[in-house]
Amino acid sequence: SQQGEEDPQALSIQEGENATMNCSYKTSINNLQWYRQNSGRGLVHLILIRSNEREKHSGRLRVTLDTSKKSSSLLITASRAADTASYFCATDGDDNAGNMLTFGGGTRLMVKP
Amino acid sequence: NAGVMQNPRHLVRRRGQEARLRCSPMKGHSHVYWYRQLPEEGLKFMVYLQKENIIDESGMPKERFSAEFPKEGPSILRIQQVVRGDSAAYFCASSPGRPVYTQYFGPGTRLTVL
Questions:
Q1: A45/B104 touch (CB, cutoff 8 Å), yes or no
Q2: How far is B39 from A6, CA to CA, in rounded Å?
Q3: Which of A49, A87, B24, B70 stands the most exposed, by the fewest C-beta atoms within 10 Å?
Q4: For residue B40, with 0-12 CB atoms within 10 Å meaning exposed, 13-18 middle and 19 or more buried, which class applies?
Q5: Using CB atoms within 10 A of its CB, is residue A22 exposed (0-12), middle (13-18) or buried (19+)?
């Protein structure tokens, strides 16, 4: 089973609205990262949050991490049509000696102009 | 500083042929990771390499798949005797070293097996 599971799987909003995506994971982690993938393209790193951090901001992005619930959320404020993409959370943890990132299935976000 | 480069971007092979995918990491990065992505799914780890060493290949299929990262030149992911199920996007990522923090991804190679 996947370490990270995002929900919702798909999200459609109007430009200007906020978008919230959630990620749950199963084992202990060192870091959790969020990536964006435009259709047919590679992944772009958005933000990394360490296991001892609870919240982090980067521009219009806000990430929270709750290690007690093994969950994270990504909030995109004032969304734009250009934010349309798939968003993935990825974890690296003690169980894999930091060798790999374990990705969830992604949330497909559509922002309508 | 050029990003991670992968080639080819698209590769079409017939069943039974070999596929070779290349990855040049970012300058100064000595750690390379390969991932596979099936349509509408997340990325799945395949293998982690450093120069001339395979560190972790726990995600690699036992047969037909191999990877290398020679002292000189790009990392190569090789798939022998491809089957239709190998059709996917293959992504390479690099990082400057342990511990794993941010990995920088290439644009991917989309393999189609006819």
A1: yes
A2: 16
A3: B70
A4: exposed
A5: middle
Tens-place pLDDT, residues A52-95 = 999 999 999 999 999 999 999 999 999 999 999 999 999 987 65
Q: Is B105 near chain A, with CB under 8 Å?
A: yes
d(CA B68, CA B76): 5
Is there a contact between A42 and B105 if contact means CB atoms under 8 Å apart? yes
CA distances from B22 to A16, A93, B5, B50 (A): 40, 28, 8, 15
Quick one: pLDDT band at residue A7, thresholds 50, 70, 90? confident
Instruction: Give residue A38's pLDDT band: very low, low, confident or very high (50, 70, 90).
Output: very high
In A1-113, at which residue ranges do the beta strands (DSSP E only) sit? Answer: 5-7, 10-14, 19-24, 31-37, 43-50, 55-58, 61-66, 71-76, 85-92, 102-103, 107-112
Q: Select from A45, A101, A107 the residue whose CB has the most chain B CBs within 10 Å, as the one to mutate to test that interface.
A: A101
Neighbour tally for B27: CB within 10 Å? 9
Question: Structure tokens of B28?
Answer: 């100064």
Terminal Cα-to-Cα distance of chain B (whole angstroms)? 37
From the CA atom positions of chain A, what is the Rg in Å? 13
Q: Please enumerate in sequence order all residues whose Cβ is within 8 A of that of B77, keeping only pairs 6 or more positions apart, or say none.
A: B20, B21, B23, B34, B46, B47, B65, B66, B67, B90, B92
